[in-house]
Amino acid sequence: GVVTQALHIAERRIPGGVRVVSERHGAPPAVRCDADDLRSAFATLMSRAIAASARRGGVVTVRILPEHVRQQDFVHYPFGALRRAGDYACVEIEDLGDGMDEAAKAALFEPFADGCSEGTGLEMAAALGVIRRHGGAVAVESAPGAGTCLRVLLPAASQPRRPRPGRPRRPREELARWVSRPAPALLPDCSLARAS
């Protein structure tokens, strides 16, 4: 599945002293996705967790599970685009790194703000953009000295999606690029984890 493939990409950068554990709980639903984009987004989130754990050593745990989300749960997912209650696939990426205070958590997906990312400084912002485009959202659970858990929700393929109202128009030069991309409602279903 998409998460397993992303894990293989991220594992190429594992330093000594860090172990990655993968867990699957229940039967997570299939999601509508652009597999390449989602694989890249998850690889970025996993690479960040691996880099955070490298400072202290330890384990990065990647969990895939089904999740039923109620309207009142939306407040726990400030990063993203949850629009309706229902069934979601949930991917948790947990590290045992230094953790973050409230200011660092709020800025995690801002360009150039994450001190754990290697690269241009845009990877976390790009990953969140992919998750939002898929109708998903991210919760960040962290505290200084306590590591970090990123919880990514993606809507089950069985849930119809509606476009967001009031979306700003894109400049003409970007229009051709966006027209050539598949509309989210027309994306194929994909599994985040293969059946074992």
Describe what this molecule looks like in 3D:
The structure is a single chain. With 196 residues, the chain is α+β, with helices and mostly antiparallel strands. It is built from five helices and eight strands; from the N terminus they run H-E-E-H-E-E-E-H-H-E-E-H-E. It has helices at residues 2-11, 35-54, 102-107, 123-133, 172-179; strands spanning 18-24, 31-32, 58-69, 79-80, 86-95, 137-142, 148-155, 189-190. The longest helix has 20 residues, at 35-54. The radius of gyration is 16 Å and the shape is globular. Mean pLDDT is 81; it is low at 168-186.
List keywords for this structure.
196 residues, alpha+beta, six-stranded mixed β-sheet, 5 helices, 28% helix, 25% strand
Describe the sheet with the most strands.
6 strands, mixed
Question: Radius of gyration, rounded?
Answer: 16 Å
Q: Helix share of residues?
A: 25-40%
In the predicted model, the low-confidence regions spanning at least 5 consecutive residues are 168-186
Spatial strand arrangement across the major sheet: 1-3-5-7-6-4
Separation, N- and C-terminal Cα atoms: 11 Å
Strand content: 25-35%
Secondary-structure element pattern, one letter each:
HEEHEEEHHEEHE
Large-scale geometry: globular
Strands, count: 8
Indicate the structural class: alpha+beta
For the residues shown, what is the average pLDDT? 81
- Number of separate helices: 5
